[in-house]
Amino acid sequence: MSALGLSQNVLDGTIPPFVAKLTQIEYLGLSQNSFSGTIPPQISNLANLTALLVDTNRFDGAAPSFRQLRRLVNLTLFANELKGRLWLPSSDHLRLLLAQTNRLSCPIGTDNTTVAPDRNLVLPGNLFSAPVPSWLGTSGVRFLYYISWWDTWGLVLVASGVGLCVSASILLAKKGTPKPETDEVDWYTATPVLKVRLWCARGLCVWSAVWVPPLVALYYSGANLYECGKPWLSTTAAYLDDASVAEWLLATAACAEFGFAAYGVRALRSHTRRLLADDGVACQLPMCRLLLMWSAWVPASVMLSIPTAMYVVSTSVPPHSNTLGLSSATLMFFQRAAAPALYTISALVVPPLARWWAKLAANRTEPHAAAQLMVTARLVVALVVPSVSVVLLNQECLALWLRVWGPCADPGRFDLSAILEVLVPHGHGELTVSVPVPVTTHDQVCNPPYQPDGRCPRVVVGTVGHLLIEKMIFAACVGPMRVLLFNLPTARATKEWVAHRLLRKPSYQESSTLDTASAGLVMLLELALAFGFVVPLLVPVTAAAMLLHAVAFEISVQHLGATLKHETRPPVGYLWVSLLLGACLVVWMFAECGWAG
Question: What confidence tens digit (pLDDT) does each residue in 112-132 have?
Answer without folding.
Answer: 888 888 899 999 999 999 999
